[in-house]
């Protein structure tokens, strides 16, 4: 018993499976289509034939299960690949003040905190909203498990009205968050807030499902120098667009 306790592996942060309900629905639909496609020939009669229905159902089942596999690959590997690409855009000194918009379970905030020595990360999310897939307690638990709780501050706040004064952050990051806002006006408001709280020579990196050109336009209108949006193809269900911008003055 003592030996088992000594060799027990330490707990690691749990970043969860993205969109678990959609994943479950796809899996069940895929299995149902495969079963129907396999069993259909047994029920054909001379009066009722559907020679293409069985193969079609089998193909749809395979497509659904393939989509499940890609979604799982994103949750287990792809989002870590994207996170590291975003963090590698920054020339870290270790004393930066970082803002993470849409913190969720803390994947990006924890990664950024690992690059800091005396700096701090502020993680903002609307954890109390009906759409939230995690709670602030989930994020705090992951911070504790990762050993970076002393370098990360969590705030349950509206990203359209960031509660910080102008020029508060050296780096602003956001991963798969802004598209959850319903309207272009709401997303543009967040981009304006990002530009407002960014310090001169600061960097913004947004990786999101679509809307890359929209974010680039809004950030440029707010006075930032914006690189051409790039499309990322990690292990992911759908391609992400990466928008990088800087404040020159």
UniProtKB/TrEMBL annotation:
Keywords: Membrane, Methyltransferase, Transferase, Transmembrane, Transmembrane helix. The chain crosses the membrane at residues 22-40, 52-76. Signal peptide: none annotated. It comes from the Bacteria. InterPro entries: Methyltransf_11, SAM-dependent_MTases_sf. Gene3D superfamilies: Vaccinia Virus protein VP39 (3.40.50.150). GO terms for biological process: methylation. SUPFAM superfamilies: S-adenosyl-L-methionine-dependent methyltransferases. One of its GO terms (molecular function) is S-adenosylmethionine-dependent methyltransferase activity. Residues 99-206 form the Methyltransferase type domain. PANTHER family: EXPRESSED PROTEIN. This is Methyltransferase type 11.
């Amino acid at each position: 018993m003592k030996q088992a306790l000594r060799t027990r592996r330490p707990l690691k942060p749990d970043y969860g499976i993205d969109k678990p309900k959609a994943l479950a629905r796809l899996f069940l639909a895929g299995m149902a289509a495969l079963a129907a496609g396999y069993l259909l020939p047994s029920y054909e009669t001379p009066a009722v034939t559907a020679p293409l229905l069985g193969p079609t159902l089998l193909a749809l089942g395979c497509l659904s299960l393939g989509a499940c596999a890609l979604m799982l690959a994103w949750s287990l590997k792809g989002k870590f690949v994207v996170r590291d690409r975003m963090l590698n855009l920054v020339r870290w000194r270790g004393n930066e003040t970082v803002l993470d918009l849409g913190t969720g379970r803390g994947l990006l905030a924890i990664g950024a905190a690992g690059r800091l020595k005396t700096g701090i990360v502020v993680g903002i999310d609307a954890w109390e909203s009906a759409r939230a897939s995690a709670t602030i307690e989930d994020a705090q638990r992951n911070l504790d498990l990762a050993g970076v709780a002393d370098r990360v501050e969590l705030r349950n706040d509206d990203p359209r009205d960031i509660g910080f004064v102008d020029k508060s952050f050296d780096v602003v990051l956001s991963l798969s968050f802004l598209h959850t806002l319903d309207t272009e006006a709401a997303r543009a408001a967040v981009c304006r807030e990002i530009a407002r709280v960014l310090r001169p020579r600061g960097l913004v990196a947004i990786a999101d499902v679509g809307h890359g050109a929209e974010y680039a336009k809004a950030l440029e209108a707010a006075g930032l120098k914006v690189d051409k949006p790039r499309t990322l193809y990690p292990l992911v269900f759908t391609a992400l667009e990466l928008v990088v911008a800087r404040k020159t003055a």
